[in-house]
Amino acid sequence: MAGKQIEQKNNLIKKSEWSFTPFKGLKDALEQRKDTLSKKHAIQKNTSRNKTDEEIFLDAMADVKEIKEFREIPLQKPRIIKPHPIRTDDSIEILRQIVSGERKIRLSDTGEYMEWISPDVRKDITRRLHQGEFSVQDYIDLHGMTLSEAKEALQLFFRESIKKRIFCVKVIHGRGLRSPRGPVLKEALRNWLQGTFKRWVLAYSTAKDCDGGLGATYVILKSK
Asked: Best label site of 29, 168, 187, 204, fewest CB within 10 Å?
């Protein structure tokens, strides 16, 4: 009899050990919390639905702080940009004036213009020479000569001019417009003045219109 009571007591102890259920009411608690949140959300929704746009804006801006430095921002005056003057292309008008004779062609602007100056001479000499500021004391005409004849004649002319202490001379060579080979004599003269005869020459420049223009060249000779 005593053994049976002890067994029943042990069974009760084992049953009590396994009867502890801590999450038994969790499901009900979650359901209750869900209902509470739903009701709260519905209340907030109804409350915001009844508010005006201005009230909603004020609620949203409730935590915004004013920056005192930005109360008055000085207005900067716009910088005045002066328009650049529009340059008109007067090329056609200049060409019309040249063709009609109202305007002279500046020889120094053409591709046929020639000038050269020794490094030992002032740079404005060629400009003054072309403008006719130096009197032409003698000249030589190379028209009708071959290149070899022209070179020999020019060499003799320069030697005699230097002996006579002549300062400024004129060489007439033409423009070679009628020659099928172009201005051969003129180009040869350019090469001679800067090559073979360079030791006798201080400067040279295309002559003025009244002195032959592009068909003649002023030459300033050295004194010795």
From this structure: 29
Task: Decide: helix, strand or coil at residue 118.
Answer: coil
Q: What percent of the chain has pLDDT over 90?
A: 25
Spatial distance between the Cα atoms of 48 and 21, rounded to a whole number of angstroms: 43
Q: 122-148: per-residue pLDDT in tens?
A: 888 888 888 888 999 999 999 889 999
Give me the pLDDT at residue 22, please: 59
Q: Which of 130, 112, 113, 116 is nearest to 182 (CA)?
A: 112
Question: What topology is assigned to 108-221 in CATH?
Answer: Ribosomal Protein S8; Chain: A, domain 1 (3.30.1370)
Residue 164: CB partners within 8 Å, gap ≥ 6? Answer: 138
